[in-house]
């Protein structure tokens, strides 16, 4: 970025119309060149490569647990690394930590605001983070003592100028990545509450984010109301790749387990797969009969299955390679707002506006 | 999402926050009082002087004193003033925070306060963009093309207005002009932050130059991943002895805990898929360390682990960690000196003079690649790995009758709480660190000398 203007530069006369036209043509040329480069490498489609792959067998997945306890719409959930505990947050301001295996509620916190849209479990299992309409992300250290008042140890970490839409710990309990309705994402130091890096580039609310599962762990992807999915470098704050093929808000983004691709779910009722190395969209998962938006997506452990939670109360299971729908799951009595596969891939959990969470396997 | 339907996609609705913003404004007026407000100075910018400049630490002290709060709270309040655009930073103007140091700020002119009823209009932005271009700030060029499309019908009007404003601007005195430019830019930074660092043309250029891979290659890799992990996906293949969610029996989790004596065959097989898998599973990392100890080449992994601790640690611990890492791994004659190429070593040591989170990135990548391309493959062929493969368990699949399953459902095991596991893990780490720490003979000696 250039330094601020010196008074000398401020007095220069620049023919405005000429430079405008020049920039416009330059932009058009660059755009078409980029499309040309991409087309050169576009030598095969995903379903063609998938022809040689064995088809999937019959699918039987059932609700194995129903977690009741929230008094209002469940908005978000996250798994603990122990593969059985979860944290969930709802519209009434409650954040609950459950042992989903036994269905016991272990902790409950009441946030000072309603619509807690984001929650996350710390990698150590010793804390949870949450936030929403309070524009903040707060961290609550958990305790073995069930009678302890968790709100007393609450730590306010992130501060945005609009609602918090998503949050995630990085590889440790010490840093949190957040996305907000103010159009930005940010990385925070938990201990001091310091802003480490902010990410500007979305033209509207950012609704979701996911950290890359890679050796370096330096990138993440975000999706927003501007229909864009952006890939960011956490070190520099730069947007390194951008994809704009959805026709409406992107509600959910999730990396493919190898980190070389990611899936997105949108209000346009489609899920899409983007290949980061080929730098383009490689699959669209949709059906004429699916009209309602996707709120949340996640991959199974191998990456073969893509689960999508939809606003028409159902869960659609897609074959990532062949592009076909493998199964449709019913059970929730209102829209599915959140969906995550467990850390060891043995099950996935959904949260819904019907006030419950379900574990499927 | 329902809560968004009433709001337009861009530009925030100010109405719901008016009440609290009005409260902020009365405080701001007090802050600007010449006698009892935050003390201001002048700031030289090239040959111009900007008046009424305030320092971050002074502002925070004023807020803390006025509102009778802690410095922490005052700093958070100050950051909100910056984030909402009432105060703008003069130096790092892209980071909208208030720093508790000598960083410089200015009060934003009330014309640009968020409570002013006008919503930032696209055509105002168009004028602003043209003005900035006229004074050669090219980071705004990104938006030309988009704007031109949206504002096509108003474009001539905009160019006319811009020309007029530009002429009027030229007639202002130089210091006023610089101040006004700063104010305006600050306003747009809050209300429509530009694409960070590059304009969209530069973004396209970078995108063109970025190395891309043929679809057949990258899609092939996606398929390969799925094929490799197919049998390890519990939702596609059976997991042994059984999926806990399906049978209510948690043997699968107990057999795969962090510190089992003997891991399962599937787990050991997964370690061979990549170095990343091996290191991500701490049990696998332990096994790798046994192999490295036998080869007397544990320093690479130790350095990699230390670099991870630095990268993901708290900001406050960084300089101490950086110093320890330098003394242990990088200094000439260090007890666990790592063998990296001269150029990387030079860059890293220089970077450590002013340590930051990513200072070890180059060295860490180099070490990781070394392990990935050489050590990892030797490990897979080693007696250590072959030994653990032989010993690994292959549990029999559960065969529960409906009566068994009912019993299981009534007796679901609570397992061990993650907090307890975490405490155990920390204890083990501390023990291991104490055991392998190089004894600093010189320090020990001088300590003994001082006691005498």
TrEMBL record, chain A:
Gene3D superfamilies: YVTN repeat-like/Quinoprotein amine dehydrogenase. It comes from Maylandia zebra. PANTHER family: GUANINE NUCLEOTIDE-BINDING PROTEIN BETA G PROTEIN BETA. One of its GO terms (biological process) is signal transduction. This is Guanine nucleotide binding protein (G protein), beta 5a. Belongs to the WD repeat G protein beta family. WD repeats lie at residues 67-108, 157-198, 199-242, 243-284, 294-328, 329-361. The keyword Nucleus does not apply.
TrEMBL record, chain B:
GO terms for molecular function: GTPase activator activity. Signal peptide: none annotated. The keyword NADP does not apply. GO terms for biological process: G protein-coupled receptor signaling pathway; intracellular signal transduction; negative regulation of signal transduction; regulation of G protein-coupled receptor signaling pathway. SMART domains: DEP, G_gamma, GGL, RGS. Residues 274-389 form the RGS domain. Residues 34-109 form the DEP domain. Pfam families: DEP, G-gamma, RGS, RGS_DHEX. Keywords: Signal transduction inhibitor. GO terms for cellular component: cytoplasm; neuron projection; plasma membrane. SUPFAM superfamilies: Regulator of G-protein signaling, RGS (SSF48097), Transducin (heterotrimeric G protein), gamma chain (SSF48670), Winged helix' DNA-binding domain (SSF46785). This is Regulator of G protein signaling 9a. The lineage of its organism: Eukaryota, Metazoa, Chordata, Craniata, Vertebrata.
